[in-house]
Amino acid sequence: MALKIMKVNYEQIVKAHQDNPHEGEDQVSDQVKFNLFQGIMDSLFQSFNASISMASFQELSACVFSWIEEHCKPQTLQEIVIGVLHQLKNQLY
């Protein structure tokens, strides 16, 4: 079900770009997009790495689910993205 929703959303984005080919000519560069993605993933990995115990598979599983519940909440992800955007802004300007 989730894949169908993602597919529909993707198709809508593609159609919107095809309908307005000149819209968004001042797009963000691929390097800036990559830096944003890298900053978000680095932050998530650091918190993941600090939270995970690999003493046993059972403990690993419990830690992973606990980490997901704590660090993948929309509010937490929003804070991470905002922090990374501020860092990128300071690097670019």
Automatic annotation (TrEMBL):
Any one GO cellular component localisation term in the record: nucleus
Superkingdom as given in the UniProt entry: Eukaryota
Compartment annotation: Nucleus
GO molecular function: DNA-binding transcription factor activity, RNA polymerase II-specific; RNA polymerase II cis-regulatory region sequence-specific DNA binding
Keyword Transcription set for record: yes
Listed InterPro entries: Max-like/E-box_TFs
Keywords: DNA-binding, Nucleus, Transcription, Transcription regulation
UniProt name for this protein: MAX dimerization protein MLX
Annotated source species: Molossus molossus
